[in-house]
Design brief:
Layout (H helix, E strand, L loop, with lengths): L1 E6 L5 H11 L7 E6 L10 H9 L14 H6 L2 E4 L2 H10 L7 E3 H4 L14 H22 L3
Parallel strand pairs: 1-2, 1-3, 3-4
Helix pairs in contact: 1-2, 1-6, 2-6
């Protein structure tokens, strides 16, 4: 299974979701990647995202931002966005992909968006990472039973 996480710039939320999900033992055999709707290709993860990942025993050292492409969507079995507006944008542009695009909260059985910590202090990133971990745990129960 190939799961793609989407946020805006692919330097904060989606890279953190990617490494957190990949580190969960129950996700062995699942491939995770991330991209952004307005990414500056090649940009590293934000300093606070990298620090937050490091404090969780994970690494974003080699992460480089990527802009979402049709090929990425084609190769993905599931696309999970950080917000409803990300989901709606993708569905508007790539309407034939609607059956595999969800917001992460929606897929995990909740609602709401994952707040963007960009330009906020480290605490906002910690809160975001905690929310991602909680939602990813719930979402993994669903994708691991497909």
């Amino acid at each position: 299974m190939n799961i793609l996480f989407i946020c805006t710039g692919n330097t904060c939320r989606s890279p953190m979701a990617e490494v957190i999900a990949a580190a969960m033992p129950e996700n062995a055999g699942v491939n995770f990647s991330s991209a952004g709707l307005s990414a500056w290709d090649g940009s590293p993860a934000s300093q606070h995202s990298a620090e937050c990942a490091k404090n969780l025993g994970l690494s974003l050292k080699n992460h480089r931002a990527r802009s979402l492409t049709q090929d990425m969507l084609d190769e993905s079995d599931l696309v999970l966005t950080m917000t409803q507006s990300h989901k709606m944008w993708i569905m508007d542009v790539f309407s034939d992909m609607a059956d595999k695009i969800y917001s992460l909260s929606e897929y995990a059985g909740g609602d709401g968006d994952i707040s963007d910590p960009y330009c906020h202090d480290y605490k906002a990133y910690e809160i975001c990472a905690g929310e991602l971990a909680r939602l990813l745990k719930a979402a993994s129960l669903r994708w691991n039973n497909l």
